[in-house]
Amino acid sequence: MAKIDILVGTTQGGTEYVADDMAAQLNEIGHESVVHLSPNLDDLDHKSLWIIVCSTHGAGDLPDNLAPFYQQLLAKSEDLNDLKYALCAIGDSSYDTFCLGPEKLISRLDQLNAKAIVNKIQIDVQKDPVPEDPALAWLSQWQITI
Fold first, then answer.
1. Terminal alpha carbon distance of the chain
2. In order along the chain (146 residues), what is the average pLDDT of each group of 10 residues?
3. Between the CA atoms of 32, 35, 39 and 45, what dihedral angle is there, to the nearest 10 degrees?
4. Which of 5, 23, 30, 64 has the smallest number of CB atoms closer than 10 Å to its CB?
5. Whose CA is closest to 54, among 6, 21, 96?
6. In degrees, to the nearest 5, what angle opens at C-alpha 23 toward C-alphas 22 and 24?
7. Dihedral of the alpha carbons of 47, 49, 51, 52, in degrees to the nearest 10
8. Nearest 5°: CA angle at 117, between 115 and 123?
9. Exposed (0-12), middle (13-18) or buried (19+): which is 101, by Cβ within 10 Å?
10. Does the pTM exceed 0.85?
11. CB 81, CB 116: distance < 8 Å
12. HEC profile of the chain
């Protein structure tokens, strides 16, 4: 089965719960998943699948715990063409910056030639107050193919 790194961007901890539930679901079917609350680009396997579970903070910014990782991506010059990723963005549509923070990450990953393996999901906590439910449903749709 696959090795999966789950990168978490969270401000108040809610996104971490989503990531933990995703890891449990993946591990249940035999994948090896690790949750990273403070990911470091040098410590991550670029041949594993990265699932990015991230909220937006402030005016469309990344949460503080993921900002250093984003800076590492900005400084990277070599391609990441072996890297595959999936994005689960969590936000509140009552803000005009709904899910903009994670978009910065995937924009940079795309510039580095990483490949999305599935369409991203954007979870609106106004409609889904328990974001784990749509996140796990999304994961179930494609987890068997990795």
1. 8
2. 94 93 95 96 94 91 95 96 96 92 95 96 95 96 78
3. 10
4. 30
5. 6
6. 90
7. 20
8. 110
9. buried
10. yes
11. no
12. CCEEEEEEECCCCHHHHHHHHHHHHHHHCCCEEEEECCCCHHHCCCCCEEEEEEECECCCECCCCCHHHHHHHHHCCCCCCCCEEEEEEEECCCCCCCCHHHHHHHHHHHHCCCEECCCCEEEECCCCCCCHHHHHHHHHHHHHHC
71: amino acid identity, one letter? Q
What amino acid is encoded at 21 in this protein?
Answer: D
In residues, how long is the chain?
Answer: 146
Amino acid, single-letter form, for residue 132: E
